[in-house]
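User: Can you predict the 3D structure for this chain?
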Amino acid sequence: MSIDLKLLSELREKTAAGLGDCRATLIEADNDLNKAIEILRKKGEIKAAKKADRATKEGIIAVSGDSKRLAVVALACETDFVARTEAFQATVKDFAKKLLTAPDVETFKAGASQQIKDELTMKVGENMQIAEAQVFAGETVGVYVHSNKKVAGICVLSGGSEELANEIAMQIAAMSPKYLSPETVPAEVIEKEKEIYQDQLKSENKPEQIWDKIIFGKLAKFYEENCLINQVYIKDDTKKIKDLLGSAQITEWARFAL
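Assistant: Here is the predicted structure, written as structure tokens:
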């Protein structure tokens, strides 16, 4: 069976597994990338799954608004050279301001896309597109944009302070949670994790009578890594995000990355 070289490269990038392991696994998975990743997880061959989250586009993120209503726009381009120019960054900031006052996101996107087509592409000489455009509103809206302007976190709170919302937004940007809480993790995701853990324990020849206890601990670790309120606070490892919240509640959150 022939191997899709593009898939082979992508599998290595996402898993950091060895070339031979990736090649054999793709053959076993019949060139199905997702199935190959699952097989490697079960074999314990994934060494750096977080590599899958690395940025693949150039561009920057800009925000406009206040702690009650905030617009976020990410404009993607081809090269970092263009993304770092003052003109490009000013354009993204202007887009964020326009989104804040637009009647809706789709109207904004249509106007911004036309402006890109009519003015920016010809002027800059690169293809550009609106990668993200969203408006957040609530009792308290927190925001954090990383210094490289390629990663941003948003947290909307009911109760709590703007400072707290900003801190949680930083957590979101830094730790990239997938879910808000264990209760919001889809049942099929949990079942798949349990299946993978069982296969790992079986391959490690662990006694079956202790599987439940080990799997319980692995799920707790999964929740700590993937659920926002269960994550360890990046500024104080003695606390979790749920400890910071107190009576406040997260009503909306998002992470943006280019």
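Strands lie at 58-65, 69-77, 129-137, 140-145, 151-158, 249-257. The domain at 58-137 is CATH 3.30.479.20 (Tetrahydropterin Synthase; Chain A).
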